[in-house]
Amino acid sequence: MTSAPNAEPEIEMGRRSALGWLVKGFLSLWAIGAGVAGIAFLKAPEKEKRPAEGVVRCGSFSALGVGEARFIRHGAEPLYVIRVSETQVLALPAICTHLRCVLKWNQARQTFDCPCHNGAFDKNGNVLSGPPTRPLAPYRAEIQADEVVVRT
Amino acid sequence: MPSEPDRQGPSLRGWLEERFNLTEMFSFLTSFGLFPTELDARRPLKEAIAEALSRPFPSYARWPRVLGILSILLFLFLGVTGVMLALYYQPTAGDAYGSVTTLVRDVSCGSFVHHVHGWAAKLLILILLIRVWRFYFQGMYKGPREALWIVSILLFLFAVAADFTGRLLPWDQHGYWQTIRGMEVLGALPVGGSLLTFFVGGASPDTLVLLRFYFLHVVALPLLLLCLFYLNFSTVRRVGLSFSPGESRAGAGVFKVHLYNLVILAALVFGCLVTLATLLPSPYLAPADPFSTPAGVRPAWYLLASHAFLQSIPTLVPSWLRGLLLEAILACCLLLPFLDRSPGRAASQRRWALILGVGVLALWLVFTWMGYRMEVGR
Amino acid sequence: MIAALLLAAALTSSTSNQCVLCHPDVRVLFDRSRHHAEEVTCTACHGGNAQAITVESAHSGNFRGVPKRRDIPALCATCHSDVEKMRPYNLPTDQYALYQTSKHGQLLAKGDERVAVCIDCHGSHEILPPEDPRSSTYVRNIPATCGKCHGDAKLMAPYGLQGNPAAEFAAGVHGTLLLEKGNLEAPDCTRCHGAHGATPPGVGDVDKICGQCHATTRTYFLQGPHKTAMDKAGLPECAACHDRHDNRPADVGMLDKVCLNCHGADSAQAKLALQMKTSYASASEEIDQAHALVQRAAAIPLYVEDYQARLEEARTALLESLPVMHSLNLASVESLTGRGRGIAREVESELNGKLQGRRWRMVGLLVFWFYLLITLALLVRFRRRAVAESSR
Asked: What residues of B are in contact with residue A42 (Cβ under 8 Å)?
């Protein structure tokens, strides 16, 4: 131990403690990083990104007018959500039962028209004309808190 | 009694020391190799730790003794990452793959945790295997280390079992079919085979089998491994660290130095795991399809030698006998300390054992290679 | 003796139809038929006395025997054109009238008895309704039924009919769908040629026939210049490029070859064809590239469902462009192929962005190692201090 004048040990101590705090801060970043990563890990993933459940969220119910249909993208199997009345909503696959082209909703005729071979389905999915033989099989659709939710 | 708390003054530690025996609580650290001796539960924690740290201690964070502490470090990483994975994993055949996909794709750091878990498992098995071989070649199974030898072999086997059960859990094509191939190999062993069938209920995994594998992987095997690790370090504390004859006990310092060695080692291991997980992540595969076998699926690498062994013995020998042979080899390995009659540990005294060891290692490597090649044509 | 025979006959016959005593082989066939189920008797077509047990009395009265070929259509029509008789079965009654307008009917009226009459397609005794899969008029069996004559080169030569339409049809996409894949919506011979009124379509009617199903393509075809041009040149519209019976699936590769059948290789029309083909092919390639990128991203894995959905839309746009090509309107074609290409490009750029973002992980790894090495240096320093302290 030194017996130097008082000023030096103080400066020494000041520098040492500053360095010490710097080192402590540097090393504690590991703990902070681990904490942040852990908390981010614990955060439950958003509901949209749970494809395994087969539940598709299809937007607001009140924004859909009576007699209107909304096209919902869903991977390789898109669907339409049609508001058939004030309180009822119907969900149908948007794929033609003939050769699997994507259907278009014809608002004026209230039908689904297939651009490939002129197949047509009414708004309940029944075949009106053209080559399709099978009607569109509806999905279960519910309204949860003004949101249309479809179970595929 | 009252004099000690007064000395501590109005600190948090003092407040706790009056109510709990902190030293006793922290003495568990000794059990798993972190501290060299029991902490003296009669003293307050700060004193007990200071005393332990200043104890002279030959650091074993050096080759070849580092393998032991390395294995428990890896086990610790596996445990932490495993607990994190268990938060998201769903152990049913229908949901397993989807839950792993959510984990790896949508959860922050999920992919990182998943791959660290995978790499730590691979490294753990490798380290435990190297450890067994090192014990053999350095004669570390001779008295009074028989228990240590047996515990080391069991550690390796149970770690392999944990790896095997863990492969099925993601329910992907590769894991599913590897498990089936592996169960074929295990089912060929006489007693083990019927035990396996009893516990697993058949050769092809379904959701019930998956649940049992999950139970084994998450509850039973970690507990067993923890017990074995405890036995391992407890035995080491009793018989002392293993120094080969002629190896110097230099590099001694106090335990505090050894502790720093351990922290440095842990940091390096963590760095390796992070690097491996980032640069060589395991590929994301298709979900399991019981009706379509992917090309080139082999049993897991540690089973390849047994697989080749069972297949390559001429068919004159019935299959139960082949399995029995394998089990006999395993029994010989476990009972080695009692079978080996050489007088001491030095290489000169154990020439035959060394030759046999090299031979068995070579044979094992050859059989593993054969097992690998057997599947190429499929 | 006669009494015993009568008794035996009465016991063995299910109805009082004694024809079967002498004609048991016919009975086997007839018992399967629809006529038998509806209790139409032998005498309805052949006349005679069904109760008689001797040949003379059975073959007496209005017995016709085996009807002559040229009389058969009229004979069948005695019931099948009678509205009162057919109403309870809800069967049409226009078959005979249609037949007389058909090529078969016209030639029969001129005295050619080699042409098809009712029994050639429907069978004589074993007639089953067209809904029955065993019937020769079941939709999947019709190409074979027509092919019995129309696939026989020797039979068809006097009429100047070449080729084997049945074989050609089977090789084409309609034939494959109908005969191999069992898609009953696919056309058979009667859908294009008519059944009882079977006639080869007129040159200007081909688009109407194909347009029964391919309505969208027909709409665009009528907008283009080919309709009037082909009718004037006597070319069979759709069949001029797509073959009559051996129809192949839509393939933009055709634009290179088929147009040159009429147009010169340097003509503006050939250039237009090439432009349409290039437009489609480049959009298709772009979509395939985007698809490959999506597969790569899914293997990491990244969330790709939205991208897959957008690529489906792009593919649909491309599929829609195929009928539009028949209008020969390059702008309309390019608006669709352009949309497909645009979507594919968007998907590619977004995914590439995401994949590039992952490269930052390497940077992260370097930063991590930098931090780790500094930490290790600090730890080594603390350790040395501890060694120094302990050796004191």
From this structure: 87
